[in-house]
Design a protein that fits this description.
Blueprint (H helix, E strand, L loop, with lengths): L19 H10 L15 E4 L4 H18 L2 E6 L8 E7 L8 H12 L5 H12 L8 E6 L5 H14 L3 E7 L2 H12 L9 H16 L11 E5 L4 H10 L7 E5 L13 H7 L14 E4 L6 E6 L5 E4 L1 H18 L7 E5 L5 H9 L5 E3 L4 H8 L4 E5 L5 E5 L1 H12 L5 H16 L7 H15 L3 H5 L7 E7 L7 E3 L4 E4 L3 H9 L6 E6 L5 E7 L3 H18 L12
Length: about 550
């Protein structure tokens, strides 16, 4: 077996790690089962928790190499987000608190799938390809969610870090966004905030109290909320946050993890997909309710009206609320040179896109599905707001935008109203976790905005009416047959299929439909919108039927709506 850092042909440009015996012992302990292939995607690795020991051990080693390559601290989060409790996963966090650079996803996949006797060679290939100095110090910080498998998997991660001689800090149980935040704070030497869990609460709570303590006289807004914690880590950390808010917000948390299974009949994904209230939610009309997902990076709101009808306010509604508010403050602060943009995916409801463009007067960009695509596109604006319809999103501000807002706040020649608007915008920036979608941060931002406008949840929902929609899944023999363009909104393959879909869509009012391959299974996703729910259901069925017929459908054919 080749030694780590040794070049082919026998020459060695770097010495073996000091912890040679630890490396050899760890690789023997965390062995790869045969015939287990796994791929690093947008959400990292995800599968059954029982199948992840060798994967997470190897990601500990990859995190060390990434740290050496970037000469910065790297984060690792053990979670499977909204997946069932028996699943788990792992993802790496880059120095600025962002997701792992795309080009390293290939290295992650290669390492995870290398046989045990090829592991050193696979590590050396990364070192040689990227010219990594293995003598460079490495530092990794990591955390986990509340799944039963997360703690033993964190031990495998630690073993991987130690195997390559990296240093580490174990932050225990955190939400995913808290770990992203800590990575950025660590690498910014505290400029973004204190690199502690307490520092996270302090920064967000200070901003929330400053923004809300001076707003009074509300007649519609009530500072009381019912929160579905998905029986996950978000519930635990929201309880911690509430201790710092000086009584400005009352949150009644249910599905708090004291009983019930993680994400079972609850959580943001359940509420969004099933379009119904979660287990344990109050059924009284008009109550403002929200749901986190299992690792605390998604947020949706919902309520029941006087007729008992369920209403969902998803990521689209949050994006429009946030864009409208930030746009108002930018205009009031007279920093009009700042370019604001909203980034969505094809799954965003067409009514939300229309509202942002025509009512909020903010341009909208559409990108392929996946948070990394939204985040990167949002960076092209001075102020970028991005949300997926599932409730994952945030807002980001360029350094130049931040500086212009600071200048407006402290310019003594400005009217006091201009200064106050700029100061409010600065506090709002402090309340936002710019590194990644953060359910706790986003909830505090939404509550701040609703109080500012004096809106109840029903008035917020009336800003625009969602077009009825339907999503269906069609199993196929080979999902790679479906090729797309235009941010996954149109198909280029199979030939002629897009034209058939266009013909079907043309028969319905206010309609659109798109087809995209699943990122995780041999299936394609069909999305349809139309002017009525029955038309949306029928459109989704007809498109699914032609996809089944033209793209190698397997199993049961799509069923017409009843």
């Amino acid at each position: 077996m080749m030694q780590l850092g040794q070049q082919e042909g026998g020459s060695s440009s770097v010495p073996l790690p000091q912890h040679r015996q630890a490396f050899l012992l760890a690789t023997q302990t965390h062995r790869k089962p045969p015939d287990k292939f796994i791929e690093y995607g947008t959400a990292g690795f995800r599968t059954r928790g029982s199948d992840l020991d060798h994967v997470i051990f190897r990601m500990g080693m990859l995190a060390v190499l990434r740290s050496k390559a970037k000469m910065a601290t790297i984060g690792v989060m053990i979670t499977a987000s909204h997946n069932p409790e028996d699943d788990n996963g792992v993802k790496l966090v880059d120095p600025n608190g962002e997701m792992l650079e795309n080009t390293w996803e290939v290295h992650a996949t290669t390492l995870a799938n290398s046989s045990d006797d090829q592991l050193v060679e696979a590590l050396n290939a990364v070192i040689r390809l990227l010219g990594i100095d293995v003598l460079q110090p490495a530092n990794v910080i990591y955390a986990r969610d509340t799944r039963p498998s997360s703690h033993p998997l964190s031990e495998a991660l630690k073993a991987g870090i130690e195997a390559l001689g990296g240093s580490y800090v174990d932050y225990g149980i955190l939400t995913t966004p808290q770990l992203h935040y800590l990575v950025r704070c660590t690498n910014s030497a505290g400029a973004y905030g204190k690199a502690t869990e307490a520092g996270y609460y302090e920064k967000l709570a200070t901003a929330f109290v400053h923004l809300n303590s001076s707003v009074d006289g509300c007649t519609a807004y009530r500072p009381q909320l019912w929160l579905d914690g998905a029986n996950g880590v978000g519930a635990l950390k929201m309880k911690e946050m509430l201790q710092h808010l000086q009584g400005l917000l009352s949150v009644n948390i249910f599905n708090d993890g004291s009983s019930g299974k993680l994400n079972h009949l609850c959580g943001a994904d359940f509420v969004k997909v099933q379009q119904c209230i979660p287990l344990g939610a109050p059924k009284d009309s008009g109550l403002r309710c929200a749901s986190f997902d299992g690792d605390g990076d998604r947020l949706v709101y919902f309520y029941s009206d006087q007729n008992g009808c369920f209403h969902l306010l998803d990521g689209d509604k949050i994006a429009t609320l946030m864009a409208n508010y930030i746009g108002d403050l930018v205009r009031q602060a007279e920093v009009l040179s700042l370019k604001i943009g909203v980034v969505q995916t094809a799954y965003a409801n067409g009514a939300s896109t229309d509202y942002i463009n025509n009512a909020a007067k903010v341009p909208v960009a559409c990108v392929p599905t996946g948070v990394k695509h939204l985040h990167h596109r949002a960076q092209e604006f001075d102020i970028g707001v991005y949300f997926e319809a599932n409730g994952h999103g945030t807002a980001i501000f360029t350094p130049a935008a931040l500086e212009k807002i600071k200048q407006a706040a402290k310019n003594e020649n400005n009217k006091r109203s201009i200064q106050l608007a700029a100061e409010r915008l600065l506090s709002t920036i402090d309340l936002i976790n710019e590194t990644v979608g953060d359910a706790i941060s986003d909830l505090l931002v939404v509550e701040t905005i609703l109080r500012y406008y004096d809106w109840d949840v029903e008035k917020w929902n009336r800003t625009y009416t969602d077009l009825p929609s339907r999503q269906l899944k069609v199993k196929v023999s080979d999902r790679s047959l479906i090729q797309t363009t235009d941010a996954e909104r149109r198909m280029t393959s199979p030939e002629g299929l897009q034209e058939e879909v266009d013909g079907i869509v043309a028969r319905f009012g206010q309609a659109r439909s798109f087809v995209r391959p699943s990122g995780t299974e041999d299936a394609v996703r069909v999305y349809a919108e139309a002017n009525t729910q029955s038309n949306a259901d029928l459109l989704a069925y007809e498109v699914s039927e032609v996809v089944y017929r033209r793209a190698g459908g397997v199993g049961d054919r799509p069923k017409p709506p009843s």
